[in-house]
């Protein structure tokens, strides 16, 4: 089975107490991530400072020797708090994430009203590592005739 990306941070920061206050202070915060066969899916919350805004995720699989950026898309309806917006992203990791030794790092960028804000996990970046999935354990070998009917003549 293909490797699984394992977050080295709590994968649902948006579920922790005081999350909206952290968004208010820092303007942008990762809400959650989930590893999927297509890549890494997640959501970001931003403080609604202006109508026009751009949210993206910058990521690397090789320790920042190179990087890519994926745009996040607005997710209506907005959160019930009335002061934040939610954006969703998918990092299409493809074959590069198929290696068990994969190390993914990313940070979130929020551009609004001529300013730029980053969420880089307090300077540590958000990091995930590849972990080989354990194949399901095989049971004891079955005798092919064990379920056959026995016929007496």
From TrEMBL:
InterPro entries in UniProt: CBM21_dom, CBM21_dom_sf, PP1_regulatory_subunit_3
Domain CBM21: start-end pairs: 20-129
GO BP field: regulation of glycogen biosynthetic process
One MF annotation (Gene Ontology) recorded for this entry: glycogen binding
TM stretches of this protein: none
Gene3D superfamilies per the UniProt record, alphabetical: Carbohydrate binding type-21 domain
A GO term from the CC aspect: protein phosphatase type 1 complex
Organism superkingdom: Eukaryota
PANTHER family in the record: PROTEIN PHOSPHATASE 1 REGULATORY SUBUNIT, PROTEIN PHOSPHATASE 1 REGULATORY SUBUNIT 3E
UniProt name for this protein: PPR3D phosphatase
Organism: Rhadina sibilatrix
